[in-house]
Amino acid sequence: MTVYSFYIFDRHTECIYTKTWLPQTSSTSDGPSSGGGGGGGQQQQHGPPGTSTSTSTTTGSGSGSGNTTMQLRASSADDAKLIFGTVFSLRNMVRKLGGDDDAFVAFRTAHYKLHYYETASSLRLVMLTDTGTPSMRNVLHQVYINLWVEYVVKNPLSPVEHKRGVGVKNELFEMALDQFIRGLM
Amino acid sequence: MATAIPSIACLGVIGRNNNPLHTSIFPSYDPSNNSFRPVRTPLQFSLILSSTLDVFELRSRQNAAAGVGLTGDFGLLHAVDDRLAAYGFETNTGTRFVVIIDMRGRRIDGALAAGLDGRDRRLAGAAAGLREGEMRPVFKAMQGAYIRLLQNPFFDPDEHSPPTGQGGAKITNKKFADDMRRIGEAWTPGITNL
Amino acid sequence: MASSKASRLGEEYVWRTRMDKVNAELVVLTYGAMVAQLCKDFDSDYVKVNQQLDKMGYNIGLRLIEDYLAKSNTFKRCSNFRETAEMIAKVGFKIFLNITPTITNWTSDGKQFSLVFDENPFADFVELPDDGRAQDELWYSNILCGVLRGALEMVQMQVEAKFVSDVLRGNDTTEMRISLIRYIDDELPPEDD
Known about the structure:
The structure holds three protein chains of three kinds.
Chain A lengths: L2 E7 L5 E6 L31 H7 L17 H23 L7 E3 L4 E6 L5 E6 L7 H17 L17 H14 L1
Antiparallel strand pairs in A: 1-2, 1-5, 3-4, 4-5
Helix pairs in contact in A: 3-4
Chain B lengths: L1 E13 L5 E6 L2 E3 L4 E3 L4 H25 L6 E7 L4 E7 L5 E14 H5 L3 H8 L10 H16 L5 H4 L13 H13 L8
Helix pairs in contact in B: 4-6
Chain C lengths: L1 H15 L7 H18 L4 H27 L8 H17 L4 E3 L7 E6 L16 H4 L5 H12 L2 E9 L8 E10 L10
Antiparallel strand pairs in C: 1-2, 2-4, 3-4
Helix pairs in contact in C: 1-4, 3-6
């Protein structure tokens, strides 16, 4: 499995943390049969959506990866807004249809899968992975209780409200998150 | 016939600046008119308490040199006369507890005493004098009360023994005074728990 | 039924996890020293002291709720205010103070209840200052009100919490009154141009 990117939104709907992981060269075995953008060759790779700034530098890692669609992306800030808009609408829709107890968990496109986790305190965690990944709900829950609560909430120097991400990007949180996610991949 | 047994005549607490923090005086039995009244005036008790300060200082220097007396129990400080005797205890923080015992403060009926069970007979027998460590439960109870007093966040120790080394206010806490009263009234020779 | 579930959750947490423990006296003395210092700093203006304690508690609550959610492993939102009360008393207080206050005095509309504290770990050893006013004005454990207010605000409940009696003042019980004012709606993303 591959994790492409990870977003945190606070209860004021602001994106307070973004992280992208460079896509690893996907092997034939774990690359599913998605008919992605026309790269040609049998070794096909699709980059993560919404990582225009970083993917532009990664073209060297995968030989001949044809993620032309990705280049069309605007800045990552806009990505975050788009993602939030999407998950927020989906979550509301899910609740309308399935009752307040129902929860929006994930959706999947041809290229990626989006995982969503919301805490009772309205913190929303979003993770984008490849399509073959099983539910990451548990992983996001772990990120919340073991990383967010431990390293951000319990850091007395970080503010309660993380306007523009203040206090989130501390070394402990970033390192632990990176380690945790890389451990999954 | 009646036997006289010891009782507490006065409890004193002295701060580390040699300032009086608390004094409780208890009445003794007076056979002349068969009533209870203190054997000394408050001023006289105060003087007795003051006179123990020198003994405390001397003892603590001796103890430090000899490396003994780590419990803080200084035992008999001085016998004032054939009736009154002062016992002392010093905490590591320099607060001192003094117990003044009246050796004939209570009276129990001798004939009655003969029919009593073991503990009370021992009690009657103790009239002759007090054994070593007899005061320990008293000091323990006093220290307990003092600690409870200090644990109250609104009690300000510096107000009572300022670090300047000069003076200090008396303890006005009612619960502490009640505790002292209870200890002074409840103690009899041989008691192990207050 | 909901109540048994809540108390089971609380008990379970305490048994299951190696809960970090802190010496109770350290907590009591720390909190006591803080309140006493506030009283000094505000020149025994106990109304201000109450406010200050509430504010501190509020800031604690804003963070504590996250820890609560992480520790209690509750995935589901409480479906009504009664359930919330159960969770506060039997899980929240159990986890953080190892006490379980009693829930009583519901109003018929289910929007107000009282927590009665049989024991209050903050108030051990405490005697209020004997100045004739503290007994009537100071709510010694007022920080708890703030904590609840802050924590519940984070889970979209605006409440008012205040003490109505305190054994330290000579009352028979220590009772906190909590009233639900409203549920806070989700914040919507700002409109894009």
